[in-house]
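Contributing: when you submit paired examples, paste them exactly as shown. First protein:
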Amino acid sequence: MKVLLTILLSVLTLANGSHEHDIINLYKHNFRGDGTYYGVGSSGTCSYTPPDLPPVAKNHAITDYVALNSPQFFGSLACGMCFTVNGTGHGLGNDPINGQHIVFVKDLCPECHAGSVDFAKNGDGRWGISIRAIQCPVGNTPIEYKFQGSNDYYLKLQVRNARIPATKVEMRQQDNHYASFQHTTDGFWTMGAGFDKPVRYPIHLRLTAANGDTVLDTIHMNHIQNEVVLHGSGKQFSLDRNLPH
């Protein structure tokens, strides 16, 4: 029984940590696939609605917005990530993808295979590319937040403009323990078990990035504001010298 329990706990640990490992792999390897076009879109699965794109998406270093393939989207944890896309110029169509592009993930390409992206601009063809994640060029801009459909008894929170994607979001409760949000497929986090109700303000958060970096941040507010971009205490994940940037 003890051996069985140990094996079960190991399996659960691997399952819980799989997305962190998979996301970090996106920074450590090049993945070959196809580059395609799906036209200029105003929104997408990641729920970034212009003009309220995160600051990093407007950074001059970002050349394009893309929809990321489904196998490497990880249920929208990849929303807001940045990638280098290197085009070979080889393929079929009228608009070849050549050279290096620095792109921002704003959508999901459900039919795309691993290593592939769909460019959010007009174009034609299917072209050979390789992709690799990089830390987003956030500069000195902080992590941002946005609530959707929330109230004092239910929170749906978007974490935006992160250098590396957050894979765990927690909120401090009255007894000082942290309760974990659950991730959604549209780029948000919702309340799970263990949350005080009604919500107590201000909102104290603990964010953990895919590489394990942790920041404590506070959203200074005394009531819920939906569909408004909010700033905490100016926190951002640290630059990781072991990952591309």
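Second protein:
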Amino acid sequence: MQQWSVKVGEDPEAVKEMRAIIYPKQEGEQFNVKQKVQSVINPAKLQIGIKNVKNISKGALLIECGNEENLNKIKEEVESNELLKDEVAIRSPVKVNPKIIIYRVDDDLNPEVAIEALKEQNEELQNGDLKHEHIMKTPRGNNWILSIDPESFQKITRQGKVNLGWYRLNIKEYIRPRQCFHCYKYGHIAKNCLKQDETICMKCGEQDHRINDCLNNRKCANCAFLNTRLKTKIDLDHDIKSRDCEAYYR
């Protein structure tokens, strides 16, 4: 699922999301921000419309308005209201460029040179803002993670491939997977883990002990599972939370 809604042909800088995040000023402070804000701010009194309100991580509240004028009224009220200004702050969401993964890039390519080549060989990327993020080494070649501006992202992901040197390589949107910090598997988070009663070692993936007590060799349990399921020979000698883990990119 693509995370950006900028239409092709639009200037991403001109596309403004009418959203703001309200969050506790004191980190770790526990109180219901949504309840507090809704008990103090009256949208009817401010003569504004609210499109959406939802709780997000770290106790914060995301508010979406229909236009910039309404959003500014919310910001002014939060910053000036005597019942709010000492307890909560408000800011615009931080925009993070989407990322793509390019599969099986030549080992000898220099990232800076390759980015220029990508722009020269792909019309969709000629004016793109590309930044090299990470190289993942796998038995089948190197996979590259690049961040890219939203407009170029929309164009190039529709192609599904890029020209780079003598090759036409597969690409797709890269979305960082959720990883549970209890069992270390992907696809869920710790509070939803079905293995809450089990103790699992981050170093070797075995049960009934933690990393501080581990006497085993390092082994990524997620890649070991892939080897069993797919009959592959992925290297297991890495941290289960490593970004060089092939399971991380699958």
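If you have annotations for the second protein, write them as plain sentences, like these:
The domain at 19-91 is CATH 3.30.70 (Alpha-Beta Plaits).
The longest strand covers residues 130-138.
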